[in-house]
Structures are given as C-alpha cells and as structure tokens.
Amino acid sequence: MWYPGHIKKAKSKIKTYLKTVQGILELVDARAPYASRAYEFEDLFKDKDRIILFNKVDIADEKNLIFWENYYKSKGYKVLKTSLKNVSIKSFLTKVVYKSFQKKFSELRVMVAGIPNVGKSTLINSIKGKKSLRVGNTPGVTRGVQWISVNDQFMLLDTPGILYSEIYNKKIMYKLILIGSLKPEEDEKEFAIEYGFNFFKEKYPEIIRNALKSDVIPDDYYNFIELFAKKRNFIASGKTYDTERAMTVFLKELSDGKYGKIVYDFPEDYDMLK
Ligand code: GTP
To answer: Does 119 share its domain with 59?
Structure first.
C-alpha cells in the first residue's frame, strides 16, 4: 500500500529536480487513464509544459479512451498515445514528443514521471546506451540522477522518484492492482479479483472467456478462480485446487494484457466528473 509518507518524500525529491526542467512527460497506463494518474503531483507540475502519454494502447480498448483524451485536453494538457513496446522509441521521442513541447530554449529538458509499471524504464532504457550522461554539476541536480540525451537538443531526466497515485477509494486501489501498478496485500488480491470479475462480466465478458479458454462464464469470482485453477491443473495438497496460485497467475497475465483489450476507467466511477 502507498501511504502519504511515500508521497511526501517523493514530492520533496521531485521539487528539487523540477527547477531544471521545462517540461514533464507523464506516463499513464491507457487502461486506467485516470486511476493511474499521480494527482498528488498535479500542483507541483502545474507551471510546466505537460504532456500526458497514454502508454500500452495495444492492450487498451481504444474506443473508451476518447472521453479521457478529451478530458485531459480540456484541462490544458497535451495528450499523446502510444505503445512503447511496439514503436521505435527514439523516433517517437524525436518526431512526436519533442515536437509537442513548446521550446523556449535551445535545449529541451524534460522529466519523465509516472507511477510504477506504466513504462518509464521501457522508455528510458531504450535510449540509454552510450549516450546516457550523468550531470552532477547542473544547478539543483544532485549526483546520481540520470540525464539521458535523446539528441543534441533533447534531454530526459530519469524519474528521480516514482510517483504515487492518491488512493482515495477502493475502486482506484483495485484498478491499480489489476493493471499491475500496485502490489496487493494478501486480502486485497481476492477483493481486486472479485471487483475485476464483476466488471468484466458487465463490460468485457470476453476477458473471462479468454482467461478460461471457454465459453462458460461462472456465476461468481470464486467459481471463476476455481475453474481457472482446474483448467491450469493447479492442485494444492489434499487434492483441492490451488486457488492462491490461480489468483497470482491470473493477475499477472491480466496485467500483462494477455486476455484482451480493456479500459477500467469510466467517468461514472468518479464523483467529481459527474
Ligand atoms: P517501475 O520500474 O515499477 O516504476 O515501472 P516502469 O514505469 O519503469 O515500467 P516498465 O518500463 O518496467 O514496464 C512495466 C511493464 O509494462 C513491463 O513488463 C513492460 O514490458 C510493459 N510495457 C511497457 N510498455 C508497454 C506497452 O506499450 N504495451 C504493453 N503491452 N506492455 C508494455
């Protein structure tokens, strides 16, 4: 679980580095464009040129992204969508991202930000290589922080502290578990699966069918997990099904997008959007 202590610590760290960048490239998981957003940091970033990058569109249900794209645009953000796993990241950065920022200086410096598991390392590592550079003497930048040079005019600051989404209700917590951004406590795992199962039954029944490789949709999440364990031959001692293992495997495959395209966030989930 993430507690305010984490947020406070990350905030103070990020504040220092913010002075050295002109822009923020904030990654979110396209499957939860609202829940995977680090709202706690909104105030810190408000004076910067900001892009929200919906990553993992390859496993997101694109028709349900339109609302969220418009939502962020209406708030003054630039919105980009991609699948970092499936594009040439270098050319995406130079041809799309660079051009989307307003350039005030000859060199553009941008902080890469985002909660866990949204694709920050995928982005950074792909361009790191020889060109990566440590800048210890830039004002406000302490040693050990990585600046990655995309080209002569474009530098990325590797996230100095992972952001945390503010979990102000259980739905957000379950969504973050289902997309793999939050490691669940034991009891939370089962609740998240129950939430996910009921959600899929209503909005994306094919996810359940694909997970089970069957046309049968069980009545409730527990029967689903038992059937999942049975199909995979996960047996615990005493010849019962190993539902613990089934839950872990299901969550991992689900967060990796193995069963189909999903968007978990709907405007009606959020009181302030009603
Ligand atoms: P932390 O290190 O926990 O902060 O995560 P991160 O934000 O650095 O994410 P990372 O780059 O490690 O990616 C998390 C997982 O998502 C990895 O398994 C990636 O392979 C996967 N991933 C990244 N981009 C994409 C994408 O566009 N599509 C899909 N399907 N998976 C992606």
So the answer is: yes
Whether residue 197 is found in the same domain as residue 133: no
**Could you tell me the pLDDT band of residue 105, with boundaries at 50, 70 and 90?**
confident
Whether residues 151 and 203 share a domain: the answer is no
The verdict on residue 61 lying in a domain is: yes
CB 251 within 8 A of CB 192: yes
Query: Same domain, yes or no, for 45 and 100?
Result: yes
Q: How many angstroms does the Cα of residue 229 sit away from the middle of ligand 1?
A: 27
- In the chain the first and final C-alpha atoms are separated, in Å, by 28
Could you tell me if the CB of 121 is within 6 A of ligand 1? Answer: yes
Q: Is the pTM of this model over 0.85?
A: yes
Residue 272 domain-assigned (yes or no):
no
- Strand 146-151 and strand 154-157: pairing? antiparallel
Which CATH number do you get for residue 213?
1.10.1580.10
Among residues of the chain, what percentage have pLDDT more than 90?
65
Tell me whether strands 146-151 and 132-134 are parallel, antiparallel or unpaired.
antiparallel
Once rounded to an integer, what is the mean pLDDT over residues 135-164?
A: 68
Q: Which atom of ligand 1 is nearest to the CA of 256?
A: 30
CATH number at residue 63: 3.40.50.300
Residue 196 in contact with ligand 1 by CB distance below 6 A: no
Cβ–Cβ contacts within 10 Å for residue 88, how many? 10
Q: What is the pLDDT of residues 17-45, one digit of tens each?
A: 898 899 999 999 999 999 999 887 888 88
